[in-house]
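Chain A, query sequence.
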Amino acid sequence: MSDDPANQTRLLADIAARLLARGQMLATAESCTGGMIAAACTDLSGSSQWFERGFVSYSNEAKAELLGVPQALIEAHGAVSEPVARAMAAGAVARSRAQVGVAVTGVAGPTGGSPAKPVGTVWFGWAVDGAVHTELQRFPGDRAAVRQATVAHALQRLHGYLG
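Chain A, predicted structure.
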């Protein structure tokens, strides 16, 4: 998906239609995007019919307290990891009235990167139809570019998982 706002609006309108057709609602669990996915969703008029809530779980403590991510999981794998993204997505559904969850945890930069997890590393989780799907992406660019690419990718894949 491009950075074209009109494309994102069309994609969100289709996500909304798919959720409404399923009688489902969406919850987000965001770390590196700080609520940008929730903001994009709620930019769409009528989103209260399909968007249930957003969790901004920037700190490790917030991931544990708000989403039920086990502290041991964070300690063993790091906050930016597949197991944590999976737990965040599942936690968003478990700790809300939503049936669908999307989660992101990553290194937006410009600091915080490491050789194993360079700036631009983002783990995604999508909880749909009782399954949690995860994916790793590495996005180029500065902090703003990484965060915007993360929002776009999260929504694009969510659209696909909703069929």
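The chain is about 45% helix and 20% strand. The CA atoms of residues 37 and 151 lie 6 Å apart.
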